[in-house]
Amino acid sequence: MVDQTMPSPNVGSLIPPEKARLFTRQADLDSFIEKQYNPKVLKALQTSVKSQHTMLGALKEAGLNGQAEGLERIYRIHTQELKRKETLLGKVWSGVTAPFRFIGRQFKEHPVRTTLIAALLIGGAYLYFSGTGAALLGNARNWLVKRMGGEMVADAGAAAKTGAEKVAEGATGALEAAKGAVTGAEAAKNVQDYSGIVEEIGNAARDLPMPE
Amino acid sequence: MIDTLYLTEGEQQQFACLSESLREGWKMESETGTVYETPEELYVRATMARFDLHPELEAFVEAVRAGNFDAEIPDDLSEDALQELCFTIGAQGMTSLMTVLFSRIQSDEDLQALASMSMVRHDILKTNADVRIPFS
Q1: Which of A122, A115, A109, A120 is closest to B113 using CA atoms?
Q2: Confidence check on the interface: ipTM exceeds 0.90, yes or no
Q3: In this complex, is the C-beta atom of B19 within 8 Å of any C-beta atom belonging to chain A?
Q4: Which of A43, B52, B94, B100 could in theory staple to B121 by disulfide, Cβ–Cβ 3.0 to 4.6 A?
Q5: Residue A99 is nearest to which of B37, B85, B119, comparing CB atoms?
Q6: How far apart are CA B3 and CA B111, in angstroms?
Q7: pLDDT tens across A103-137, in order?
């Protein structure tokens, strides 16, 4: 998998363990932050923690005891994704047509189309949360393996056949025959590459988080 | 005019393996964005997707979600519908599409598509990085 949105910060490099073990009170931690960074950083951190406490306290007071953290988290994600969507569709891509035209054409091509379906299914993770979701993803994975693997096997076969036909064409076709054979071997290797992609897709589908 | 590919280090190596005639005329920029979507964020995008505003796309998406994986992608997808789709699958989905397309590049038209995908992914990664709400 590629990097995630919120990588774990390197805690040790921000607050070295040899310093952390000397903290016995909140004031020790604050003093370290103030010296290591500056008073403004300390103030911002204190404000952040305080507002976090205030927010969670207010949510609990409003009757969300036990759900406050979960709701706050999903609210933040929705807010973030709405803002991202607004930025991309409303500003960055406003009036932009050419790249989407080219992409649209490729969606009709089989391998890309297949991957698009996988991406949609992974994105549509809510299916996983429904009763039939897991089975659907399982079926999708089987379909993908068959489809993508099959396509590449067919490619390998066709390329190899082309190579053999060129051999039959005689000496002038020898060079082309060799090229065809190489292409066949490459296509066969691609079957393995495709399997890797499918596996990755399958893993991504399996790793989907369960609803809280 | 689309003449630039935004490629990661690994993709640049793949690009270098293409024939010189295919590579000719293309500019390359390093894709340094790393803020890909988490599964949770993709889930939220999928639930927020307004495919209902694009009936031509909605039928296909619904068919896929119902298990009909052989459903046909309509020919007449509007640019708006494609933008909705690209945002929904995110930089993660665009990378998957690029990976598959890379192994099939045979023409300048394929490279136009790859460049387009890389440009869209670049925009998504930049926006993902610019718009982040930290979690408590």
Answers
A1: A109
A2: yes
A3: no
A4: B94
A5: B119
A6: 9
A7: 988 887 766 676 676 666 655 544 444 445 555 65
